[in-house]
Design goal:
The structure is a homodimer.
Chain A: H1 7-27, E1 29-41, E2 49-58, E3 61-66, H2 68-74, E4 75-82, E5 87-90, E6 92-97, H3 113-128, H4 131-147, E7 150-157, H5 160-170, E8 173-180, H6 191-204, E9 211-217, H7 225-238, E10 242-246, H8 250-260, H9 264-270, E11 278-282, H10 288-296, E12 299-303, H11 305-310, H12 318-324, E13 328-330, H13 343-358, H14 366-380, E14 398-401, H15 414-421, E15 427-432, E16 435-439, E17 442-443, H16 448-465
Parallel strand pairs in A: 1-4, 1-5, 6-7, 7-8, 8-9, 10-11, 11-12, 12-13
Antiparallel strand pairs in A: 1-2, 2-3, 5-14, 14-15, 15-16, 16-17
Chain lengths: 467, 467
């Protein structure tokens, strides 16, 4: 009945799977970490979403993004994080903040900008900002950022070497800008002092894996041409990124014209200000010619939708920047004006604000908002080659986002769900430079209770300062 | 050595506290629940914030709001919830939603309104809406609402008696509007059928503690004058609140003018449409004369900032409504267009959108946004006497909001922190009509796993419907 399979052939067939897996095991590389079986939003060149997909990480780098079967065939890992049913995506890049200002969150609300600054923020800063205060505030900000999936932040503040120390200790990546401003501030009596500080800071953290020292001239209306030129020269000499507030408010435009007889972009272009990497924060009151110029000068832009709405600053021409090919990322601004460091909120508002203002519901899709919050931000900070997407060879900055809350059901489109129905609190795991900073909501690189206790003490100083 | 206190006096002193507490115990009333020692945001006539404060509840009503000492002296309770360090505030009132549409959350995104409706929402509704589907979807919505601190929702959908059943079972309060629209829909082939349904629904839930039956004519551009008049007459006869989409988009204005040769408000006023309680959802494209008319007719308005931004509908003139004294609340709209039912997001966006569009950072303060999301919504739904604030005699609809997350530190101003730095997920306890629906994040009136499982099954129907 039927034909007989020779016994030898049966033996061969039975042995084959074992033999094959032995070969596979011999061929598999060992990597440090595999994030397995998630819904992988890559933000790669084809905006591929793999469902399911796995990411193999070795040391500080992503080595492969592929199907779970392909990854498990090719790699063994010391550690595996199961991401079944969860989104795996590039870590969020907050392109503009003043991290330590979380200490002024909710201090003075719903005020005109000058009332708010003069009655609350400036007195509080004058009386409270110290190296210790900056460390405490930045730690609170780092905790919030790690908990909400930010893996790189661009900062502008004082005592930036202290920001760098606590950032490095927390394992976070930062492009940290030492402020230069013309009036006396807690860490520098003069702009010249600030330039000295910036240079020392740059040398202290040169070639650091996580910290990119940067210089942060405050704005064209708070600096003269001589200082702006000196900042530019220092940045070019030390290859430091520049971060500057640019065209944030209408008041800034008129102050700039009064002081320099030019609009902000022209002032800077006239001084040949632009460094190899320059990030313009806000970029709200910018016309078409200025957008074209920023593109030619390879200047990146940070869009800050929540701050621009809450402070009634205006709306950045995001669609025009994108059409012109300007690198544009998203920022939260300081939590004093926003009022949080949650990049999920910022992504959502980046979409909502543009849709409203352009009266076009197709403006800034969920995919575009997510791209700006990741790869766009990386490019705006001059790090597009190394950060912002899940691709082999990029640095391993990624997050795992839970999708199981009632408010996230049903799940038809993961990109839409991330942008329109998720929060920072949904981030379960945050990985920077291949190191797990938070796992299953437990922050591993900071002691949460200590951070909160120190922040409470510092908050009492702030309360006294504005009494 | 020293003077001697007579033994009798010592005995008297020793007995005094006991005697006093015995008197207090005799005088203390027994109540069902005390929420003790919180940061109580009352939204009362003087917008009092008591820190600390306690709320005594007996049965379905608030009996006292006072200092913790005063409350514990005057009341004993069967149950006490400690709210130390947490905000206690009126439950949020979502004045406009289509609850069961959570089933279409994230279905089609970033599309022009007509593409979205015609390619996704209408086909999905035609093929999936049934009594069972509405029950499943509404349960998912109820879970999300209870988890995010909503205690009353105003709904417009189909099979509203099913919405009522599951709402009542979950212990939630609802003003539930049976839809009337001119084309055939899953629960009514004609507007006449829908009117019959609405009347039966009103009779079925007459005098219900939690459910207020309502009628929901879709809009002036999807109904003729005859049907609008019939709706109005039925509402007046049965004393049912009316909910209607009004002036949501510019397209609606032109369709209305084409069909009725009048703008939407004039169409309705001409028909003497207004019932004792009429809620106009959206109210975006409304001019000054129309605002004055809505005030004279005592029509309430539901502002839906997130939906209006995401769908690029426009911006309701909230500041003008408030100046004119129109009752105005906040709504999320359906989660298909928003994309969640989180009233905290809606509060924040109500503030942000107005600040942006009026270019005035003082527009819609945190306190005003919170008032609109509570008392304002109660008034817009004709329930201002019984809902929307924490005051003796009001129904016991309140929430406890945790304030301990890193992103909520420091806490300078609880109202600012609720509106600008908190989320639905921070709500720990939700109480409706004196009954605890969620305690310490555990929903007590629904089985979360069952709700989510049933929603997954229904989502598969939706996927098939739009393939």
């Amino acid at each position: 009945m039927g034909f007989r399979i020779p016994a030898a052939a049966i033996a061969l067939l039975a042995a084959a799977p074992l033999a094959w897996s032995a070969v596979a095991a011999r061929q598999a590389s060992t990597v440090s970490l595999i994030v397995a079986n998630g819904i992988v939003i890559t933000v790669d060149g084809t905006r591929r979403v793999m469902n399911p997909g796995s990411v193999a990480i070795n040391g500080t780098e992503i080595v492969a993004v592929d199907t779970p079967a392909a990854i498990s065939a090719r790699y063994r890992s010391a550690d595996t994080i199961d991401a079944t049913g969860k989104v795996v995506m590039p870590g969020l890049i907050n392109t503009h903040t003043h991290a330590a200002m979380v200490m002024y969150r909710g201090l003075g609300n719903d005020l005109n900008l000058m009332d708010w600054l003069q009655k609350y923020i400036f007195p509080a800063e004058a009386r409270t900002v110290s190296p210790e205060f900056v460390r405490v505030g930045t730690r609170l900000a780092l905790l919030e950022m790690i908990q909400s999936g930010t893996t790189t932040f661009a900062d502008m503040y004082y005592f930036e070497e202290e920001v760098a120390k606590v950032t490095k200790a927390a394992g976070m990546r930062g492009v940290l800008g030492q402020t230069v401003i013309e009036f006396p501030v807690p860490d520098a009596k003069t702009p010249a002092d600030a330039l000295v500080r910036a240079e020392a800071f740059a040398r202290q953290f040169a070639h650091d894996e996580l910290i990119t020292p940067s210089i942060a001239p405050h704005s064209v209306y708070t600096l003269d041409a001589k200082t702006l030129t000196a900042v530019s020269q220092l940045a070019k000499r030390l290859m430091m990124p520049i971060q500057i507030h640019l065209a944030e408010t209408q008041v800034e435009i008129s102050l700039s014209q009064k002081r320099h007889q030019m609009r902000p972009v022209a002032i800077l272009d006239n001084l040949n200000f632009w460094a190899p990497t320059t990030l313009a924060a806000h970029g709200v009151w910018i016309n078409d010619d200025e957008i074209a110029l920023l593109k030619r000068r390879d200047v990146g832009v940070s869009n800050n939708p929540e701050s621009n709405m809450k402070l009634a600053s205006g709306t950045a021409p995001v669609m025009k920047y994108r059409k012109a090919g300007v690198s544009i990322g998203i920022g939260t601004d300081g939590a004093a004006s926003n009022n949080d460091l949650d990049m999920f909120e910022a992504m959502r508002q980046a979409a909502f604000q543009q849709k409203l203002v352009t009266m076009d519901p197709t403006a800034v899709s969920a995919a575009e908002a997510l791209e700006m919050a990741t790869l766009g931000g990386a490019r705006a900070l001059g790090r597009g080659q190394r950060l912002g997407s899940l691709e082999p060879g990029k640095l391993a900055d990624l997050i795992i986002v839970g999708m199981s809350k009632a408010r996230q059901q049903p799940l038809y489109d993961p990109v839409s769900q991330v942008v329109y129905a998720s929060r920072g609190d949904d981030v379960e795991t945050t990985i920077v430079n291949g190191r797990v900073l938070m796992r299953d909501r437990k922050v591993l690189t900071m002691d949460e209770a200590t951070v909160l206790r120190e922040a409470r003490v510092a908050a009492d100083l702030v309360r006294k300062a504005v009494q």
